[in-house]
Design brief:
Largest sheet: 4 strands, parallel
Radius of gyration: 26 Å
Distance between the termini: 42 Å
Number of strands: 13
Shape: flat
Oligomer: single chain
Number of domains: 2
Helix content: 40-55%
Number of helices: 16
Strand content: 5-15%
């Protein structure tokens, strides 16, 4: 059994030294990407196991020259260069064609009419780049698949602002600029897919849990990496089990890398970014501290929920009335389904949704109530209209009233029926901790795993919920919303 060591510094994604801790709360920008390997990697046994800093039996990656330089550094430098030039290149690719179109039409450049269009395009381009860069920081973020919807929403918003302010603009120039910006964004994203910052996995301890794929590669010996650290290149990172007793050579390397501004990540941080889950076996003091949601964002999130609900409600009311009639005609029973759910801080509330199933009498026993609360995809109680409503998630829209009441949020862990929640709390430790945030109409677990009821599946769902709680932010909520939209529109993904 190994003992936790102390005295080694880790750094965050910006390269800032941080005191070692069991549960790093930050996340590297590229950790969630699972991409093809940027170059072939061949592993061989170390030819000199007694070399300073290397351990017997450690497998190391070929690719170093005689001075200890490693080929992965070049990949890291290319990554940084593209990321630094991404915004300027996107602006150039989007705005230059619009200027060319305007000039071909024999128009005078830089008139007030043209300038307002150009400013709107530039602002929308910068905003879309920023949103996509923030989404890329999270696990399971399929960057390419979100380029079109993000740009569509941003440029539509810019067009709406121009119309709202009654500013003159050229529709042809705006359309050309938006199309070219989206194309440039796609090309840059494709070009940088194979140029991710290499994360070198140091052997020992639980670092073996890291999936060696894409930019996650086995580390060479400590001596070879020391040469790379001293070369001044910072566009790579080290991943290790910082609770494992490494050899003195590795210990010195970790400290030297941290002082040089090279990120040194605890394996658990990377494992969570790869899976989108937080695996917890017991709630230690560090776990409790790291799982407390972002308090400042929670207040802003509540404000966003209220404003969005008030904006959507007038448009939904007419649709609610029509759907209620269709549901009543399709099957006997009420149009709305009301059920007790467990929500924020463990409080019970009454959840509203459209009825999608046939009603039936339920016995008073807890087992019967629990089975009645479980819904499966092939459930014979689901009606014809209900199947469509569940597939498109329209049945959840009445929960806008729950949001206005303060029971729920648009994004958060899905609230369970009271009978199921009580059962899960008996079977799973710290299950109730998911109630530290408001439940949502959609959530991180729902878009990644879908609807589950068995205890074994609920444990996996709980890990997704803990990941959401730990990393809760505006951008994670946007990512969940985009994933939900993808499921609704394409029918692909977790349901």
């Amino acid at each position: 059994m190994t003992k936790p060591r102390s005295g080694i510094l880790a750094v965050d994604a910006r390269g800032t030294p941080q005191a070692e801790r069991a549960e790093p709360a930050g996340s590297p920008a590229e950790a969630g990407d699972r991409r093809p390997k940027p170059y072939p990697v061949e592993e061989t046994e170390s030819s000199n196991p007694d070399r300073p800093g290397s351990a017997p039996g450690v497998r190391q990656t070929q690719g170093q020259d005689r001075d200890g330089r490693w080929g992965g550094a070049a990949i890291g430098e290319a990554t940084l260069l593209i990321r630094q030039l991404e915004l300027p290149l996107q602006l150039i690719g989007g705005l230059l064609p619009t200027m060319a179109v305007w000039a071909v039409q024999d128009r005078v450049l830089f008139t007030a009419f043209y300038n307002e269009t150009l400013v709107a395009l530039a602002a929308a381009s910068v905003l879309s780049w920023y949103v996509l860069s923030k989404l890329r920081e999270h696990a399971k973020a399929r960057h390419l698949s979100y380029i079109l919807p993000v740009n569509f929403l941003v440029f539509s918003g810019a067009l709406g602002v121009l119309a709202l302010l009654r500013l003159p603009y050229s529709a042809s120039v705006f359309a050309t600029g938006a199309g070219c910006t989206i194309l440039a964004s796609f090309l840059l994203a494709v070009r940088s897919r194979g140029l991710l910052r290499p994360h070198l996995i140091v052997p020992g301890g639980r670092a073996a849990e890291i999936n060696l794929t894409g930019n996650y590669l086995p580390a060479p010996s400590a001596a070879d990496l020391t040469g790379l650290v001293r070369s001044g290149r910072r566009n790579w990172a080290i991943v290790a089990d910082l609770h494992y007793s490494h050899s003195p050579g590795w210990e010195r390397l970790f400290a030297e890398a941290a002082l040089a501004g090279i990120p040194v990540y605890h394996f658990r941080q990377i494992a969570e970014m790869q899976t989108g889950q937080v695996k917890i076996t017991h709630l230690s003091e560090n776990d409790l501290g790291s799982l407390i949601p972002n308090v400042s964002y929670m207040s802003m999130k509540r404000l966003i929920d209220i404003v969005a609900a008030l904006v959507l409600l007038p448009f939904c009311l007419v649709g609610f009335a029509l759907l209620a009639i269709v549901i009543r005609l399709d099957s006997p029973g009420k149009a709305f389904f009301i059920q007790d759910r467990v929500g924020f801080r463990g409080q019970t509330f009454r959840l509203f949704k459209f009825r999608t199933m046939r009603e039936r009498d339920v016995k008073a026993e807890s087992q019967a109530r629990r089975e009645d609360a479980m819904t499966r995809s092939d459930d014979d109680r689901i009606t014809r209209v209900g199947r469509f409503l569940r597939k498109t998630r329209i049945d959840e829209l009445p929960q806008i009233f729950n949001i206005l009441k303060g029971d729920m949020s648009f994004v958060g862990p899905r609230p369970e029926a009271k009978a199921l929640a009580e059962w899960y709390e008996e079977e799973l430790p710290f299950y109730s901790y998911r109630h530290i945030v408001r439940p949502g109409i959609t959530g991180w677990a729902q878009v990644n795993q879908g609807h589950v009821t068995d205890v074994s599946d609920i444990l996996s769902k709980l890990r997704y919920d803990f990941y959401y709680i730990r990393n809760i932010s505006l951008w994670l909520d946007v990512l969940v919303a985009l994933k939900t939209l993808r499921v609704i529109v394409t029918g692909m993904g977790a349901k």
